[in-house]
Design goal:
Length: about 450
């Protein structure tokens, strides 16, 4: 086996030696007079982190001024394909999972991080580094005053022979030292073994993390000292939260799943937590929906529409889609008033079940066709509130079946319906190469940058 491996390595190394720059750097094209023209390669815009801090793929970042469309865009690339993107006004951080395995030791996953500056007119690469574990989503990354904060779950194989595993959840802080992102500090592991991170939100000098296996620990983290982040308090309750939204006066609004003490999920749940005393977080309000329900807002925060102060100070408007299968299929938009003091007040719901289409292209009628033809994702998607200058307040419910308009004061009455054709999932990929004119000076050949 060792001889075959060495022969394979020699053969691959020889093949790499015969390639040119054109074989490695992704190309960019500009459409001119209806034709794609290849742009010259720009070696100075490609960055290679230190060995060990790269994975498959290349990530390109393109910056352009929408007010000057004729101006050429600025592009740069870093070796490694990004799976998670975080950005604020000044900083962008790309994250990529790096899976490691060693049969003689323990398996450990880490996340590679690449930091970019957005402060100038152009996006500029700054530094790269890594933290142990993997990210849950983009809310797992944050940056404040030059410090990157990251929450990760580390899934470790402790015994390769028996495949025994454990998990450790932590929050890390990182800072740039030249081109290197260095870990400044980390919390102790939190959550029980086997629990993984389901939600994170960084707010000022605090971080809030939800882990779950059977019960839901809401963990409050002190980030005021970047070199010594620490867990301040935990709250253990059944169920879990998928998304955390800030409310005024140190309260958190979350959406997730209700569950029993054994971790069996039973439907969508909204919760409000009081984190004024971070050492002792409290659940102050809870609203459940049951019916083996789920919501797109649990994994896509853009489906979570919250208008703070819509009904007055401390009284917000919340809209989110929900789909249930008990006792029959239903997909609707839930509309509620939310208050940290009073909790949840249901205003009403907008049902689009009869507007939606199944995979066969026919309309759903009280759930008919779901069992055989229904495909995932064909549900209520969004709610949008638009107020008028005359004081009228309208809610627009948007699904794949259509768009309906309702007066917020009377959601039971549909003012207007615009049906939409059933979505099709064909022709996603094009296998034919586009007709391309070569660049005037592609810069092929030579050594890699």
């Amino acid at each position: 086996i060792d001889q075959e491996l060495q022969q394979w390595r020699d053969r691959v190394a020889g093949e790499i030696g015969t390639t040119t720059l054109d074989n490695w750097i992704p190309r960019r094209f500009e459409r001119i007079d209806g034709r794609l023209v290849a742009l010259p390669l720009e070696c100075e815009s490609y960055f290679v982190p230190e060995p060990g801090l790269v994975q498959d793929g290349v990530t390109q970042v393109v910056t352009f001024d929408i007010e000057q469309p004729a101006q050429a865009p600025h592009a740069l690339a870093v070796l490694g394909g990004a799976g998670t993107v975080y950005a604020n006004l000044d900083t962008m951080v790309l994250g990529q999972t790096d899976y490691g395995w060693n049969y003689h030791e323990v398996q450990s996953t880490r996340t590679l991080l690449h930091r970019f500056s957005l402060a100038e007119a152009e996006t500029n690469y700054e530094a790269s580094g890594f933290v142990p574990g993997y990210l849950h989503n983009q809310f797992s990354i944050d940056e404040a005053e030059g410090v990157i904060r990251v929450s990760t779950t580390e899934d470790r194989v402790t015994d390769p022979l028996s495949w025994s595993t454990t998990t450790e959840n932590r929050v890390y802080t990182l800072g740039a030292d030249g081109r290197d992102l260095e870990v400044l500090g980390k919390t102790d592991a939190f959550g029980e073994p086997g629990e993984t991170i389901f939600a994170t939100r960084f707010l000022g000098d605090r971080g809030y993390v939800v882990t779950f296996r059977q019960t839901d620990p809401l963990v409050a983290v002190d980030l005021s000292d970047a070199a010594h982040p620490k867990v301040l308090g935990e709250l253990h309750i059944p169920g879990f939260s998928d998304y955390i939204h800030p409310l005024p006066n140190h309260h958190l609004l979350t959406i997730g799943q209700d569950a029993d003490e054994n971790g069996s999920q039973s439907g969508v749940a909204l919760q409000i937590f009081d984190v004024t005393d971070a050492a002792a977080p409290r659940q102050v309000h809870k609203e459940t929906f049951g019916g083996f329900s789920y919501s797109e807002a649990s994994y896509n925060h853009k489906a979570f529409s919250f208008v703070d102060g819509h009904f007055g100070e401390g009284r917000g408007l919340l809209m989110f889609p929900i789909t249930t299968y008990d006792p029959e299929y239903s997909s609707r938009l839930e509309v509620l008033e939310v208050s940290a003091s009073a909790g949840f007040t249901r205003i009403g719901s907008i049902d689009h079940t009869k507007l939606l289409h199944d995979g066969c292209g026919s309309l759903l009628q009280n759930g008919a066709g779901v069992e055989y033809c229904y495909y995932g994702g064909n549900d209520m998607r969004r709610g949008l509130e638009i107020g008028q200058s005359d004081g009228a307040d309208f809610v627009y419910a948007i699904s794949y079946g259509g768009i309906t308009v309702h007066d917020l004061a009377d959601l039971s009455t549909t003012l207007k319906t615009v049906p939409l054709p059933a979505p099709t999932y064909t022709d996603y990929y094009s296998y034919g190469a586009p007709e391309v004119d070569p660049a005037p000076d592609a810069g092929a050949g030579g050594s890699a940058p």
